[in-house]
């Protein structure tokens, strides 16, 4: 099976004629051959989006809204098919994949409704013969660069608001998981999106393609989800053409378990939060801080729940955790565990590769963790979590904030006063209180510090794709 680029309303091969293979991480089987775009293909996509922008930006809100709603309906109708594609190329369980498709579709539905609410305003002027008007206008051509861990939701969270306000888009999905993107773009095409409004560029040449996008003045906005290291490089290169940026970058999420928490519920929430997608999410728990008084009980309950997780091929029934995405991911997990154990950490469960295959790693829990261990400072992006005891709420906050990252944090307590005090002190863009699954299409998603710039999702998510124009209107027929 071959998949081509989608440029200016047509499925076309790359100019070089080259394709790359997409593999199933669970079986290492080849799934499809995908067009490998280069700089010439990227320029073609940019030109198509640039030429389509005047037409699309002038559409009335209802036209854009109706198209997005049509796409939502098509995504829901194709949910099982999309989930199957995602599990095959990414590895997560089929149940998780279905959940992501629903989440991805929710962004399309939400912004189909928000398309009607791109409001301007009038401001009282300083003179009787003037009127001050404020308009919100689409920023222009948007380049959407998406990661492999959420190959559907990260696309729709970016392009649905962009399309809703009148921008045109170029999607560059991760080379590891382009098939989900291909199918989603097919659904947009089936829904009747005009040519040039959506363009898909699949490639193994991420850096060179990214450099084209960042240097071309016709692209006015770049929205990226990925590592902080790459995000900083994008920010630097985008400065040369002063592009508008949205950067959703790395995380190092803490979960704080206070001594009045419901331990069974907290353990259940953290297990699902940590081990979803085999720990390959930017908002999953990396560090657990539990108060000493309840530490023994929490560790026992938590470990028992982790032991119940089923590792396997995501297509098999009952599987909770699939494979890691590639060998580098496995090596990083092993590096963090080896470093921690050498420095005195204890394994309560896991700690080794599974016999299922080289990319399968057992869910792992580390205790007796200290601050000098790599796992306390680096995002692991795998199925391993550390547990450290703390004496007070203040110590928990200090340790949680002792990181350059600030994407998501979690807090478990039954005291609303403590919940407010501690959450107010956490330097994070997202805080889940007794909630390990805070993401929702209607909520703003983003982080503090080196976890990114801007917010995606919710009403605020529209702001990232508009420019504010101030018009001062003076009438020659009015006088004082």
Automatic annotation (TrEMBL):
One GO MF term attached to the UniProt entry: succinate-semialdehyde dehydrogenase (NAD+) activity
Sorted UniProt keywords: Oxidoreductase
Domain Aldehyde dehydrogenase: 11-471
Gene3D superfamilies to which the protein is assigned, alphabetical: Aldehyde Dehydrogenase, Chain A, domain 1, Aldehyde Dehydrogenase, Chain A, domain 2
Pfam families: Aldedh (PF00171)
Any one of the GO BP annotations: gamma-aminobutyric acid catabolic process
InterPro entries attached to this UniProt entry: Ald_DH/histidinol_DH, Ald_DH_C, Ald_DH_CS_CYS, Ald_DH_N, Aldehyde_DH_dom, Aldehyde_DH_Superfamily
Listed PANTHER family: SUCCINATE-SEMIALDEHYDE DEHYDROGENASE, MITOCHONDRIAL
Family, similarity comment: Belongs to the aldehyde dehydrogenase family.
Record's protein name: NAD-dependent succinate-semialdehyde dehydrogenase
Organism whose genome encodes this protein: Polycladospora coralii
